[in-house]
């Protein structure tokens, strides 16, 4: 068992749980970003040290190189031509770091024992966080002051940020509930799903509920009858949790001052306006976009990201790059589904849960900022790492793919590229920590920062930092 992988698995829940003790006066978002940057720097260093382990197959050599090269050129041009290239570079480096972390975790989870330990760790983290939140809610009820329960959501500035994490976390917990060899762990995971359902109800996470439902249906479609045991261990505890919280709401929360407004379930919360802003920005630069992270450069009064990943890509990266990114993601999804569907019978529940998590991520991305917030970014990378690990495990006994002839110059360049990434990650981390040391409300320092003119320090809109404008 790889103890490093198990330790790293503590972080997605460990970050929000540790925030009250170690937050240093920062917003939870900014604290999570700071921890994330250190983690990604470490992961990038491990990735460079051990090698990328990338192997191209002969029959996909030219298509892969051409498409990847075209995408690199487009994204580089978008970055260099943006208003603030170094800020655009930060976003690219975060995603490269997340991929490095996913690769590093996937390599560490190469054996079943480590994967099982990682999943159990995620269950313990989810249970610990849920219990802590519910205890704080209970204290507020006893004090008779629960006009707004969001303050009890430890480590998250907004209930949606917690919901983003649940979109990935609950399917992974459900894998343990349905698949673990230990009855005790299955029961513990079942109870954790109950607690997760309670938090889903009190935060009325609409996008997460939709993502979980469509992810489950996608799993049943992909695996047929083999997915039914997973569904039976997932749906009932989640519903039980929601019903329990409904009873708690009627008996205690509503008398203590918290009233759920049914109109909120149908409210779009300015998403149509934000998507319209993204389209307007895209129209100013349809081929290359306005630059990574640069939706946050133009103050719109509502949010520093459009709450829709697909329109965000369109506005910031341009139409050609967006098409290539989505085609590449679709190809990876298809290859992952083929691999998961052909796993041995004993791993069917794992396949259903992972496929449901991937579909949930894609659905949630159309309604939220799950690809923007640091904790949910780590959860997305965790799900990808688990899929990569299962795909690698499946290929263990397969014949090796035919390699391609490479020159010594290309080999040296490919070996040096990861260390260039490490140097860039180090620069970003140092620069970001300087911003944290300068203020408990760090910002991306630019001349004439928008937030200063509009008083955004009192109503922050997150992107890189909780005050996302620059």
Q: Quick gist of this model?
A:
The protein has helices spanning 3-9, 11-22, 28-50, 61-80, 85-108, 112-142, 159-179, 183-203, 206-223, 228-253, 271-284, 309-317, 319-341, 348-365, 374-395, 408-438, 450-454.
Task: Characterise this structure.
Helices cover 69% and strands 0% of the residues. It has 17 helices and no strands. It has one domain. The radius of gyration is 22 Å and the shape is globular. The relative contact order is 0.15. Helix 7 runs antiparallel to helix 14. With 470 residues, it is an all-alpha fold. The longest helix has 31 residues.
Give the domain tally: 1
What helical percentage do the residues reach?
55-70%
How many helical stretches?
A: 17
Structural classification: mainly alpha
Poorly predicted tracts of residues: 53-59, 397-406, 451-458
